[in-house]
């Protein structure tokens, strides 16, 4: 059902958590962040979880967390991990959860923001730029395909982005 919760999706570095916090403040909610939930359940960081249990285990946990979110009281703000929409079952769950808002970020901005980042296991090691390009071109159509709203984030502050989202929610736009 459209509008039940607001769910932010998008690539690593798009600002889903920061924008999510801004939105949650405005609606006087706690931000629900799927990565943080996973870290709390697993009792370790995402990087460590990838190391110890591997990516497939992490992906399974993403689906589990989404399923649990179906029981939340309506009207929450949810930030998701960048790879979460890649599983088809997760896309169905996202649509059940509410309005999916895609924070669209360019590769250049991602590179700038994530330079030296050590918390994203998928971008570690040599060739971070190539990895970003490859992942982004693979994911972009999927993000677009499930989004009810698309919001560009390059050169904008979390406040500006949250303003646009709040306005579009008021209007009930369907991009
Ligand atoms: C991932 C994105 C990360 C985190 C994990 C995998 C991805 O979240 O879930 O490192 O596959 O894009 P952010 O998008 O919050 O960085």
Question: Topology, pairings included?
Answer:
Layout (H helix, E strand, L loop, with lengths): L4 E5 L6 H11 L4 E3 H9 L3 H8 L1 H15 L7 E3 L8 H10 E7 L2 H8 L13 H19 L2 E4 L5 H14 L4
Parallel strand pairs: 1-3, 1-4, 2-3, 4-5
The structure holds shikimate-3-phosphate.
Question: How would you portray this structure in words?
Answer:
This protein is of the alpha/beta class and 175 residues long. It is built from eight helices and five strands, in the order E-H-E-H-H-H-E-H-E-H-H-E-H. A five-stranded parallel β-sheet has the order 2-3-1-4-5, sandwiched between helices. The relative contact order is 0.21.
Which whole number gives the mean pLDDT?
95
Name the bound molecules: shikimate-3-phosphate
Radius of gyration: 15 Å
Number of DSSP strand runs: 5
- Main β-sheet description: 5 strands, parallel
Helix-strand string: EHEHHHEHEHHEH
Low-pLDDT segments, ≥5 res:
none
DSSP strand content? 5-15%
Strand order of the largest sheet: 2-3-1-4-5
Structural class: alpha/beta
> How far do the termini sit from each other?
16 Å
Q: Into which percent range does the helicity of residues fall?
A: 40-55%
Form type? globular
In DSSP terms, counting alpha (H) and pi (I) runs of 4 or more, how many helices?
Answer: 8
């Amino acid at each position: 059902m459209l509008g039940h919760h607001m769910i932010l999706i998008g690539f690593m570095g798009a600002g889903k958590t920061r924008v999510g916090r801004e939105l949650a403040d405005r609606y006087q909610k706690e931000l629900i962040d799927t990565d943080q939930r996973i870290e709390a359940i697993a009792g370790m960081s995402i990087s460590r979880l990838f190391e110890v249990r591997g990516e497939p285990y992490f992906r399974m946990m993403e689906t589990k967390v989404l399923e649990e979110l179906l029981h939340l009281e309506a009207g929450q703000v949810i930030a998701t991990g960048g790879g979460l929409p890649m599983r088809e079952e997760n896309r169905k769950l996202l649509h059940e959860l509410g309005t999916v808002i895609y924070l669209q970020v360019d590769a250049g901005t991602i590179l700038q923001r994530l330079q030296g980042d050590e918390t994203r296991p998928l971008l570690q090691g040599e060739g971070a730029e190539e990895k970003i390009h490859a992942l982004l071109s693979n994911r972009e159509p999927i993000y677009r395909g499930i989004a009810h709203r698309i919001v560009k984030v390059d050169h904008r502050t979390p406040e500006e982005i949250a303003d646009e989202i709040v306005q579009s929610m008021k209007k009930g736009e369907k991009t």
